[in-house]
Design brief:
pyridoxal phosphate; alpha/beta; Alanine racemase N-terminal domain-containing protein; 10 helices; PLP-binding_barrel; 8-stranded mixed sheet; 2 domains; 354 residues; TIM Barrel; single chain
């Protein structure tokens, strides 16, 4: 059935292994982030085969799927108070920034007779999650008094919201904060989680500060690129995930609509250019499944024209391939495309071992 998301596990394993080996040279461990593919267990297991020692996801529902895989599980999104019981049950470690939530985790950990590890997130400028630098010591002072909780380390997030690129100076701040905590509280924190795939360019160029011990990597594994500048990582694949969609209509039609133009089905006003008659294919996939801007046709002569809820319109006028109704058009995917196709129940998932 189509549309179809095809996943090549061998390419994923090789990507994972390449990045794990790259980080190991700098004494950095990799958390394999599974959220982009909704934690499909076979894919997560392949990450482990590639060398990741922790699996991380933003959603407890996804971590539940991974309980049979014998590595620690990390909750990446700051826990909701309403999910504290499940956080303790299904996550071995979580990222935190609110002392009230950490206290709730402590109470629940005692109930479940567990020790739950946490990483205290520090906001170093990207303005998403994290305590401010000046608030770190007062919060740690409270955390170390809690039962059922073990402060394992500190971390930061960059690029995801504020687009702040990790630099040696920023990550050196994180290492210094860890050293200050260790000194004041006589601790030996072993995790300094220095961000995500956007920090990889520092690893590649030998610029990441000594003392960063962990990176949380998703996009670089699935797409083979770092995310600070979007550069490809040598010896990786960018087609681990591909989308296949079927042609349901193929006709020559004008390129400019006829009649009075208003809003489209999503309340937007589109701008059209009259380019004469073109050969247009309609594919049975739409915005409910994937954003058109996240698609890269593998036939480079195909042009994406537009989409609605359930249809994608492409211009095949310049293609050398003689497309017919029922034929399949293949796409590489950007990160958002992998995420939405993995999430859509209308997109078939096919996993290939090689």
């Amino acid at each position: 059935m189509y549309p179809l998301l095809r996943i090549n596990l061998e390419k994923l394993r090789k990507n994972t292994q390449t990045i794990v080996n790259l980080c190991e040279k700098r004494n950095i461990k990799v958390v394999g982030v599974t959220k982009v593919f909704c934690a499909i267990p076979e894919i997560a297991q392949t990450m482990v085969k590639g060398g990741v020692e922790i699996l991380g996801d933003s959603r407890i529902k996804n971590l539940k799927k991974l309980q049979h895989i014998p590595v620690p599980k990390m909750l990446l999104r700051i826990p909701m108070k309403s999910e504290v019981e499940e956080v303790i049950k299904y996550a071995d470690i979580s990222l935190n920034s609110e002392i009230d939530t950490i206290k709730s985790l402590s109470e629940e950990a005692k109930k479940q007779r567990k020790i739950h590890e946490i990483i205290l997130m520090v906001d170093l400028g990207d303005l998403r999650e994290g305590v401010l630098k000046e608030d770190v010591i007062p919060i740690v002072e409270q955390i170390v008094k809690l039962e059922g909780i073990r402060l394992r380390g500190i971390g930061t997030n960059l690029t995801c919201y504020g687009s702040v690129i990790p630099t040696p100076d920023i990550l050196e701040e994180l290492v210094e904060i860890k050293n200050s905590i260790n000194k004041k509280f006589n601790l030996n924190l072993d995790i300094v989680s220095g961000g995500n795939s956007s920090s990889l360019y520092l690893v590649q160029n030998g610029l990441i500060p000594r003392g960063i011990t962990q990176l949380r990597i998703g996009e670089a594994i699935v797409l083979g690129r770092e995310t600070a500048f979007g550069d490809r990582i040598p010896h990786t694949y960018d087609d681990v995930f591909t989308l296949e969609a079927q042609i349901v209509e193929l006709k020559e039609k004008p390129s400019y609509p006829r009649g009075i133009l208003g809003m489209d089905a999503f309340g937007e006003r589109q701008v059209y250019v009259d380019r004469g008659i073109m050969k247009r294919a309609i594919l049975a996939v739409g915005k409910q499944d994937v954003n058109m801007n996240d698609l890269i046709p593998m036939d480079s002569s195909i042009e994406l024209i537009g989409s609605s809820s359930d249809h994608l319109i492409v211009n095949v006028t310049n293609s050398q391939y003689p497309y017919n109704v029922g034929d399949i058009i293949k796409f590489k995917l950007r990160y958002g495309g992998i995420l939405s196709c993995s999430t859509s129940e209308y997109v078939e998932k096919v996993i290939e071992e090689a």
